[in-house]
Design a protein that fits this description.
With 390 residues, the chain is an alpha/beta fold. Helix content is 40%, strand content 13%. The chain has two domains: 231 residues, 3-Layer(aba) Sandwich (Rossmann fold), CATH 3.40.50; 145 residues, NAD(P)-binding Rossmann-like Domain (Rossmann fold, 3-Layer(aba) Sandwich). The strands form two sheets. Strands 3-2-1-4-5-6-13-12 form an eight-stranded mixed β-sheet. It has a five-stranded parallel β-sheet with strand order 9-8-7-10-11, sandwiched between helices.
């Protein structure tokens, strides 16, 4: 199978139990036989496992890569992996090139998107969107759309893997390895923010969280005694920033920190600033040079931004929702007819034109991850404590 040598030399099977299982299953069932499938996940060594599973299922694979995402943020990739794909005969194309193919009658049957990069297309069966940040590009879509980030599985990546990637990136840059007693200010208390807090607490750091307290008490932060400051109290937020050793943003909101007292504190502070969101959360008044990685998500400086053991379930869900979409929409010509069919199914939930992952599929992926993967205890802890929504 393509990429076998790289996979075997880089990973153990316990790091990708779900993608491994789907690869074996799909090699027999061939659910994507002859279908033109475009996948637009950030291109790194660990995403080879998703491509490998789709190829095993018979997909005619194309990889999508935008210079910038539809959200306006740069979509990261490993140039070496891009070269490897092209040398292996797999096209890597931009949204403009994809539109040109569609206009020439060589469009795609299925688009597995990330951050809405390829929402401009009109694939035969529809889309699967990997991230929450790309959802608004699909509201009112003319084709059915599954949102992988609507369920439990994606929390493994965002709550566990992303936080670990932030700490690992700091250490790669020479900060740490000991963060004991260091003062961190984390903006955001959703899945990503809470995951960062979890990793910092494990590193014995002193953590303060800035968030919108109007949403009520955050059980995870409360249970761990993490001080919380309301994001609307600009004076208190600025004081936290001035006293911080590290500041990291994970709100998911463009320009979330862009208010004069906070900007002034950020520019005067000696704190190490980083962003872990897709958007520029600092705003235009904080120069890119003042923030690590020029405001790009800090973990993307790493060869593997999120360890495969944490992203296996997300990538597997991304691909498996594609299989689900093909099976469900076969023979249905328009989204209105599809939505009527979906409404009759107990396994599909609809939110406007956007659909959550079926519960039985998520259970299958979670059980495989817990029982056969390296991170079973961490996943069980996460399901018992960390928040489910950003």
């Amino acid at each position: 199978m393509l990429f076998d040598e790289i996979v075997k030399s880089s990973y153990s099977g316990a790091e990708y139990p779900v993608l491994g299982a789907f690869s074996r299953e799909w090699a027999y069932t061939r659910p994507f036989e002859g279908l033109r499938v475009l996948v637009a996940t950030p291109i790194f060594r660990n995403t080879l496992l998703e491509y490998r599973a789709l190829l095993a299922g018979g997909a005619v694979l194309t990889v999508g890569c935008a210079g910038t995402s539809a959200a306006g943020a740069s979509m990261p990739c490993d140039d070496g992996v891009v070269r490897l794909l092209r040398e292996s005969g797999i096209a890597v194309i931009s949204p403009e090139e994809a539109l040109a193919l569609e206009a020439s009658g060589r469009g795609f049957d299925l688009v597995l998107d990330c951050a809405g990069q390829f929402a401009c297309l009109s694939p035969k069966f529809g889309f699967v969107e990997l991230t929450r940040s790309g959802v608004h590009f699909y509201e009112g879509a003319a084709k059915p759309v599954y949102v992988a980030d609507s369920g439990l599985v994606k929390r493994i990546e965002t709550s566990l893997g992303t936080g670990e990637g932030y700490v690992r990136a700091l250490r790669q840059l020479g900060y740490g390895p000991d963060f004991s007693g260091k003062k961190f200010v984390v903006f955001g208390s959703g899945k990503v923010g809470a995951g960062i807090v979890l990793q910092l607490l494990r590193s014995d750091a002193a953590v303060d969280v800035v968030t919108d307290t109007s949403f009520g008490v955050n059980a995870f932060l409360d249970a761990n005694g993490v001080p919380v400051t309301d994001c609307k109290d600009a004076g208190a937020v600025a004081a936290l920033v001035r006293a911080a050793d590290f500041v990291v943003t994970a709100t998911g909101v463009k320009g979330a920190l862009d208010c004069p007292p906070v900007v002034e504190a950020l520019l005067a502070s000696e704190a190490v600033l980083a962003n872990m969101g897709v958007e520029d959360e600092y705003g235009s008044n904080v120069p890119a040079a003042r923030v690590l990685a020029e405001k790009k998500p800090l973990n993307f400086i790493l060869e593997e931004p999120t360890h495969l053991k944490y992203i296996d379930a997300s990538l597997a869900l991304h691909a498996a929702l594609g299989e689900q979409l093909v099976r469900e929409t076969a023979g249905v010509e328009d989204v209105s007819a599809y939505k009527e069919t979906a409404a009759e199914s107990a396994t599909v939930k609809t939110v406007c034109a956007l659909m959550e992952p079926p519960e039985d599929l998520e259970r299958k992926i979670l059980m495989t991850t817990v029982q056969e993967g390296l991170i079973g205890p961490e996943v069980c802890e996460m399901l018992g404590g960390l928040p489910s929504d950003d």
